[in-house]
């Protein structure tokens, strides 16, 4: 939350995330989008504009939308087509920040495991980087959804899944052949969850290649 109506600090933090994630290969080719809640009443989400190079974002490359993904100001750049998944996480999972990435590992593993609907992450010390997990003995199910260009339908599918499965504490999901969504109570927590989930997915991929 901020008293700054233009949310300069949040824009700068998301710009730095873009540079970092681009360097790590998680946001290449103008893919990905990042957002953070800047107000809850009325709800306002700051989100990267559509089609921007995430390694070279400027303060102009953002939009502010309401809980339905509608632009607050018609003159601002168009927000990503995937805005509805960000607003869903912000409202339904009380996320303060949502980061969507397109890493090679998440893309490949999501396609490989979409048939079983998710990936078990277990036995790794790094699981403790996820909110609410205190031991490597935890077992976390990372759901995978089929890719779709119909964001309203995809949002409804994710919402239904979250309401009917025991995934309340899972801070993210994969979209098959597409990438990852991860979130946290604030920007640092969301970054940590992206880093931890990417690390764990890389472990899974590496273990599979050793078989
Ligand atoms: Zn995407």
Describe this structure in words.
The chain is built from five helices and eight strands, in the order αβββαβαββαββα. With 211 residues, the chain is of the alpha+beta class. The chain has an eight-stranded mixed sheet with strand order 3-2-1-4-8-7-6-5, sandwiched between helices. A hairpin with a 2-residue loop joins β1 (33-40) and β2. The radius of gyration is 16 Å and the shape is globular. The mean pLDDT is 94.
In short:
The chain is an alpha+beta fold and 211 residues long. It is 35% helix and 21% strand.
Keywords:
single chain, 211 residues, alpha+beta, 8-stranded mixed β-sheet, 5 helices, 8 strands, 21% strand, binds zinc ion
- Indicate the mean pLDDT: 94
Numbering strands along the chain, what is their spatial order in the largest sheet? Answer: 3-2-1-4-8-7-6-5
Task: Give the total of beta strands.
Answer: 8
- Tertiary shape: globular
The biggest beta sheet is recorded as: 8 strands, mixed
- H/E element order: HEEEHEHEEHEEH
| Number of separate helices | 5
Helix and strand layout, with pairings?
Blueprint: H1 8-23, E1 33-40, E2 43-48, E3 62-65, H2 83-92, E4 97-101, H3 104-113, E5 118-122, E6 139-145, H4 151-164, E7 172-175, E8 179-184, H5 187-210
Parallel strand pairs: 6-7
Antiparallel strand pairs: 1-2, 1-4, 2-3, 4-8, 5-6, 7-8
Helix pairs in contact: 2-4
This protein binds zinc ion.
Zinc ion (ZN) is lined by residues 31, 82, 100, 102, 178-179.
